[in-house]
Amino acid sequence: MQKSTPGRPREFDDTAVVEAAMDVFWSRGYEGASAQELCERTGLGRGSLYNAFGSKQKLYHRALTLYQEQGIQAQAQILNGRGTVRERLQALMDWGIAHDLGPARGRGCMALFAALDRAGKDPEVAEIARVYVQRLEQVLCHLFAVGQRSGELPSVRSALEMARGFVGSYYGLRVLGQSMPDRGFLRDATAGILASFGAGDERLG
Fold it and tell me: Keywords in UniProt for this one (predicted)?
């Protein structure tokens, strides 16, 4: 986690430290992440850690921002990929289900739970969450607009309205993945979401 250059003071690899802290916050939540575990996982002493990042809260903000940056890049890659609108929306929801039911099951989506748990207490978390939703909304809005122009999707609603409706359904699905960790249930829910957006109603394979 540390690097040094001859003749210069030792420096920290900020990205590696924030990634290690992100893993702790993702697993434990903000309140559950102890200073001791953050130090152990980052490889820094408490003084060095807080001198570099200011406080546990500021380190959490950095970790949450990094998590969201990685998440939006992965989701945008799916939504901007090849295939029909329906195929790309299905791929995004399959990606979410795979994460929620995969080896990291129980951790869920750090961005979603940060918004639910911290946004009302921490204005910076609320702002980070707002920016994240806006970025995902922009990618979805473009996709829905493309689908409407091609005739794949109806034009009864605006692309923006459809994008916002899908964001609500998508994150509702992610919450359900925590309380209903049943792949068949979540696939049925996915099929229903796709049908409601006029993107096909056939069952998922």
Answer: DNA-binding, Repressor, Transcription, Transcription regulation
The pTM for the full model equals 0.84
pLDDT beneath 50: ranges in the chain:
2-10, 200-205
CATH number, domain 1-54: 1.10.10.60
Same fold, 1-54 and 65-205: no
Q: Which of 147, 141, 143 is nearest to 163 (CA)?
A: 141
CB crowding 94-112: b at 16 or more within 10 Å, else e: eebbebbeeeeeebbbbbb
| b/e map 23-54, b = 16+ CB within 10 Å | bbbbeebbeebeeeebbebbebeeebbbebbe
Reference 68, options 8, 103, 115; nearest CA is 115
The pLDDT of residue 4: 43
Domain-by-domain residue ranges, the chain? 1-54, 65-205
Helix, coil or strand: residue 152: coil
d(CA 148, CA 157): 10
What lies within 8 Å, CB to CB, of 191 at 6+ separation is 201, 202, 203, 204
